[in-house]
Amino acid sequence: KKDIPVANFIMHEIHCSRNIEVCRYCSELIPKSEIKNHIECEHVQVTCKCRMKIEKCLLKDHEASACPLRPAACQYCDIQLAFNKLQDHEIYCGARTERCGGCGRNVMVKDLKDHPQVCG
């Protein structure tokens, strides 16, 4: 999968066919001596903490962006909780009230950002 000078092409092709294998899962070029280890390490099925079965090589991306149990921070109080619990928590947390120092009224936390525009 690289450009090879025409003069070296036949020798290169022979070398590759003897020593390199294309992984049937990810299409990467892997030395034949390492293909078994590559498949066992990268493409073995593992179970995420959310109980989803996934290839090991995809687990980090899943845990970072798709796992319902990935850590997420509340926009109102910065507490860390599981992503699948975040929406319910933010509804509750944003409905709490705090006293405005300017007008003295109790304002819901979710409205504090916009409150200075209508305060007083």
UniProtKB/TrEMBL annotation:
<dbReference type="GO" id="GO:0045824">
    <property type="term" value="P:negative regulation of innate immune response"/>
</dbReference>
<dbReference type="InterPro" id="IPR013083">
    <property type="entry name" value="Znf_RING/FYVE/PHD"/>
</dbReference>
<feature type="zinc finger region" description="TRAF-type">
    <location>
        <begin position="39"/>
        <end position="87"/>
    </location>
</feature>
<dbReference type="GO" id="GO:0005739">
    <property type="term" value="C:mitochondrion"/>
</dbReference>
<dbReference type="GO" id="GO:0008270">
    <property type="term" value="F:zinc ion binding"/>
</dbReference>
<dbReference type="InterPro" id="IPR001293">
    <property type="entry name" value="Znf_TRAF"/>
</dbReference>
<dbReference type="Pfam" id="PF21366">
    <property type="entry name" value="TRAFD1-XIAF1_ZnF"/>
</dbReference>
<feature type="domain" description="TRAF-type">
    <location>
        <begin position="39"/>
        <end position="87"/>
    </location>
</feature>
<keyword id="KW-0479">Metal-binding</keyword>
<keyword id="KW-0863">Zinc-finger</keyword>
<protein>
    <recommendedName>
        <fullName>TRAF-type zinc finger domain-containing protein 1</fullName>
    </recommendedName>
</protein>
<keyword id="KW-0597">Phosphoprotein</keyword>
<keyword id="KW-0862">Zinc</keyword>
<dbReference type="InterPro" id="IPR049439">
    <property type="entry name" value="TRAFD1-XIAF1_Znf"/>
</dbReference>
<comment type="function">
    <text>Negative feedback regulator that controls excessive innate immune responses. Regulates both Toll-like receptor 4 (TLR4) and DDX58/RIG1-like helicases (RLH) pathways. May inhibit the LTR pathway by direct interaction with TRAF6 and attenuation of NF-kappa-B activation. May negatively regulate the RLH pathway downstream from MAVS and upstream of NF-kappa-B and IRF3.</text>
</comment>
<keyword id="KW-0007">Acetylation</keyword>
<dbReference type="InterPro" id="IPR051986">
    <property type="entry name" value="Innate_Immune_Apopt_Reg"/>
</dbReference>
